[in-house]
Amino acid sequence: MGVSCGSYLRDRCSRLFPFFSDPALRSAFYLKLALVLLHIVFVGVLFLFDRDLIEKTKHEPWYTAMYALLFVATLIQYFVTAGTSPGYVIDVQKAIDERDAAARRKLLASNIQKAVDDRDAAARKTLLASKQPASSKNGDVVITVDGRNNCRGNTTAWTKLVMSLSPQRSSTTSLTCSYCNIPQPPRAKHCHDCNKCVLQFDHHCVWLGTCIGQGNHCRFWWYICEETALTIWTSILYTGYLKSNILKAWWADIILIILLVALSISLIFLMLLLLFHSYLIMTNQTTYELVRRRRIVYLRGIPERVYPFSEGVCRNLYLFYCARSSSSMYRLERLPTAQELEDKSRPYTCYDVLSCRCC
């Protein structure tokens, strides 16, 4: 009886909370919970000990309201980024193949309608010429449709698209992911943690529990920016409290000093991460491409200081912040030609600087 009740409760919990049955999802859930609790602890301890901040809140509520707004916005941005798809290749492949199939059906329907209209016109001409009813043996409609439209064969629309983006690799074998068994476009990589191929793969973030790719890289940058601003503001509040209340309560000072040291270490890490990803955005690179440049097939033979996918700083910023405002819109980039690589590897001259070639 007890065993059956226990199994029933486990099954019930698994249906209501599916992440508890999956070790990876359960670990990601615990990490998210730990991150939220850390934010609450750092802010809660500050308001618990700092009486001056509470008095300031009474006289200047806007100051605390702005801090609370940044705190809430940071947590919301965290969960939005974690819940946004990084741009899985299989989802984009299905969308393109479905769109291609719909176009084929539409073309087939138009060809059928055209054939029926032609048959009816021919029948009317025969009727007018002979003044007799049309023979029933001519009732079958024979439709001839171009083979490229009525048969998909072994090459799908997605495969054709990927092949057109990767002219250097002529066979589909060199493009196909051995795990997902689908052709990979340039800059895509299979993530072993998510077990999916990701467009413009950057890295797998453990704290977010998801990959960072083309679909959520922009939101990830904004989350780092908000987290950095929140950490700086909290560190300023901690420092102000310690300056005015040092030695009043030694145990409280020790707690706040330990938390301030942890905040300082986090702030250094966040600022370095923010600067690093800002550099990647301006040069249109990913962490994976920068770290594993010599191992990536489409980057072999390209000089280190040449950024093959960069279109200038201004254009890169526009494409990153503005053109990817929706996670459902993805941009598949083709491999640059030899002439384009030669132009990008050309040293800058005074004329290039004046003409804003880098932009």
UniProtKB/TrEMBL annotation:
Coiled coil: none annotated. It catalyses: L-cysteinyl-[protein] + hexadecanoyl-CoA = S-hexadecanoyl-L-cysteinyl-[protein] + CoA. The chain crosses the membrane at residues 29-49, 61-80, 254-276. Residues 174-292 form the Palmitoyltransferase DHHC domain. One of its GO terms (cellular component) is endomembrane system. GO terms for molecular function: protein-cysteine S-palmitoyltransferase activity. Its main location: membrane. PROSITE patterns: DHHC. Its EC number is 2.3.1.225. It is found in: Endomembrane system. It is a multi-pass membrane protein. Keywords: Acyltransferase, Lipoprotein, Membrane, Palmitate, Transferase, Transmembrane, Transmembrane helix. Pfam families: DHHC (PF01529). It is an enzyme of class 2 (transferase). InterPro entries: Palmitoyltrfase_DHHC (IPR001594), PFA4/ZDH16/20/ERF2-like (IPR039859). The DHHC domain is required for palmitoyltransferase activity. Belongs to the DHHC palmitoyltransferase family. This is S-acyltransferase.
